[in-house]
Design brief:
six-stranded antiparallel sheet, mainly beta, elongated, about 190 residues
């Protein structure tokens, strides 16, 4: 047998190759966020409480990566009740990069570990709006990443790790309702 593939377990199993030279294998896959949760408990979630957003709008969530690893956002969910009268209004969301830290109208938040058997605290700063005024203030605005319109219900954005927040960098979210309504922001992410 000049060219053979054997398994790495020492059991001596040979790989099957059919008459069309296709190698037969079996595998299983898991998402990167599931892998990071299992491997080193570095997967987390953030959820703001339901916030009463205004028609002026403003910063609702701000985070800074205080670790020495990149932060990869895999999932974003924006929830909105559709307003306060007919519940059929639109809310506008904006993702912003490189904001400075807000200093007023803030509440300190925390990320929750997705691996509840090995809870490791996320090395980051999280602030969300305390519902005073129209949003968090006292910061210098960064660069708008992208804008979204959301209707009543939950809008899910499967980002898959494409948004990366490097060490000491920031990310924030603005929300503004077409009319006053209840909204929340939910993120899943991991460090690597």
């Amino acid at each position: 047998m000049p060219d053979t593939l054997k398994d790495g377990t020492g059991s001596g199993y040979l790989a099957k190759v059919d008459n069309e030279n296709h190698l037969h294998t079996t595998c299983s896959m898991e998402s990167m966020i599931a892998h990071r949760s299992h491997y080193d408990a570095s997967a987390y979630g953030i959820s703001t409480p339901m916030l009463t957003i205004t028609t002026t709008g403003g910063r609702m969530l701000w985070l800074q990566n205080d670790s020495d690893k990149d932060l990869y956002i895999t999932d974003l969910r924006l929830s909105y009740n559709g307003g306060s009268t007919n519940h059929n209004r639109v809310a506008f969301s904006q993702l912003v990069f490189a904001d400075t830290e807000p200093t007023t109208n803030i509440t300190t938040g925390a990320a929750g570990s997705l691996n509840r058997s090995n809870v490791v605290a996320a090395n980051m700063t999280i602030l969300y709006w305390d519902e005073v005024g129209d949003g968090m203030t006292g910061h210098v605005a960064g660069s708008a990443g992208f804008n979204m319109c959301i209707g009543q219900g939950t809008s899910y954005f499967p980002i898959g790790g494409a948004i990366i927040v490097s060490p000491n960098k920031t990310l924030s979210f603005n929300l503004r309702g077409e009319e006053v309504g209840e909204a929340s922001i939910n993120l899943l992410f991991y460090f690597k």
